[in-house]
Automatic annotation (TrEMBL):
The keyword Plastid does not apply. GO terms for molecular function: ligase activity. GO terms for biological process: coenzyme A biosynthetic process. Residues 1-21 are annotated as: Disordered. Belongs to the PPC synthetase family. Residues 1-10 have a biased composition (Polar residues). It comes from Coprinellus micaceus. This is Phosphopantothenate-cysteine ligase. Signal peptide: none annotated. SUPFAM superfamilies: CoaB-like (SSF102645). Keywords: Ligase. It comes from the Eukaryota.
Length: 343
């Protein structure tokens, strides 16, 4: 029963908060995708991406949100596809997506790539062509996009609210359990830690005449626990930890591994996340990463990945800029292969 004092466990959350209306439809489509790739022996990664909203009203006018643009998720999804994975890309509506992300930034607007060519005789419809200097880059992205489309290796799911996210994550992870160790979870989404249960939401737009607004939110249940223990017992689970205080990053990542018992936490600092990340995992008898691995005492090992901060001032094509997600995915691919082989 719902009370004001409820602290939500995953169980009480799903028992009291209604699912999104499209859940059943989404699950049926994702089931087909997983079944097909399972039959073909392909590994499947679920990439979560972007931020979640927390609506304040049932007829929602206002909501809380966060900074995540979905760059990490969309970029990583492309590298997973290149590495041969089938990708379920579960992203916040209107956040960046694989391939189209190259043209979504204000620094690289798509319409600036196109030219209108007036027909010589003045009678026919004008043709649209690609600016010659942009053609090579566009061809590369378009070719990858078409190839993925033809092979059917990318499946997209959309969420907006934290509720949508939680219901979808549970359903998709349960469907992915048939993949056993060939399932990977790459949880790059920035999920709200707080939410407003439906039972306490105002039905209509909150009126401003009442003066100061005070809202007490509940904690979103820690969803990694049932994910690891119940929904996908064999999946390779990679969570992320974002901090703004360097001193907290590694202790909090270690605490998450201890609490949830999954495989890897990737730590990133808000301002350096595009150039530096740290993998935190339990120590193996023999290190999986032999090159620049930085071993520590205790039960955990750290593995830092760094790339040079790219100089974009000299007109370098955005497509030629090194992205840290390429190295993250390469490292995870090796670790996942080793996880599968140890079955
Ligand atoms: O999108 P960008 O702008 O590129 O930014 C990428 C990023 C910084 C958001 C990403 O790299 C990142 O760090 N995401 C996780 C942010 C975070 O600190 O999450 P958390 O501590 O609230 O959660 C820990 C992990 O559990 C995360 O992997 C999260 O996706 C997952 N989680 C959290 C809560 C919840 N209810 N369900 C979850 O699955």
């Amino acid at each position: 029963m719902f009370t004001e004092e409820t602290t939500f466990s995953a169980e009480s959350y799903f028992a009291s908060q209604p699912p999104p209306p499209t859940l059943q439809h989404d699950v049926e489509r994702v089931r087909e995708f997983i079944k097909r790739h399972n039959n073909e022996g392909r590994s499947v990664v679920l990439v979560t991406s972007g931020g979640t909203t927390v609506p304040l009203e049932l007829n929602v006018v206002r909501f809380l949100d966060n900074f995540s643009a979905g760059t990490r998720g969309a970029t990583s999804a492309e590298y997973f596809l290149k590495a041969g994975y089938a990708v379920i890309f579960m992203h916040r509506q209107f956040s960046l997506q694989p391939f189209s992300r190259h043209y979504s930034h204000s620094t690289n607007p798509f319409l600036d790539f196109l030219e209108i060519e007036s027909p010589a005789d003045g009678s026919k419809t004008p043709a649209i062509t690609v600016t010659p200097s942009k053609r090579e880059d566009l061809l590369e992205v378009l070719s990858m996009y078409k190839d993925v489309h033809n092979r059917g290796t990318l499946h997209t799911l959309t969420f907006v609210t934290v509720d949508d996210y939680l219901w979808l994550l549970r359903a998709v992870s349960q469907e992915m359990s048939i993949l056993g160790r060939r399932a990977m979870f790459y949880l790059a989404a920035a999920v709200s830690d707080f939410f407003l249960p439906r039972q306490r939401m105002s039905e209509h737009k909150i009126q401003s005449e009442k003066g100061r607004l005070q809202i007490e939110m509940d904690q979103v249940p820690k969803i990694l626990k049932p994910l690891v223990d119940e929904w996908t017992k064999e999946g390779y689970i990679v969570s992320f930890k974002l901090e703004t205080d360097d001193n907290l990053l590694i202790p909090k990542a270690r605490a998450a591994l201890e609490r949830y018992g999954h495989q890897v936490v990737i730590g990133n600092d808000l301002h350096r996340r595009k150039y530096e990340v740290v993998f935190i995992s339990r120590k193996e008898k023999t290190s999986e990463s032999t090159t620049t691995a930085d071993m520590n005492s205790g039960d955990f090992q750290e593995y830092w990945l760094r790339i040079a901060i790219p100089d974009t001032s000299g007109g370098v094509s955005p497509h030629k800029v090194k992205e840290i997600e390429e190295d993250i995915v390469a490292e995870l691919g090796k670790r996942h292969a080793s996880w599968i082989s140890r079955a």
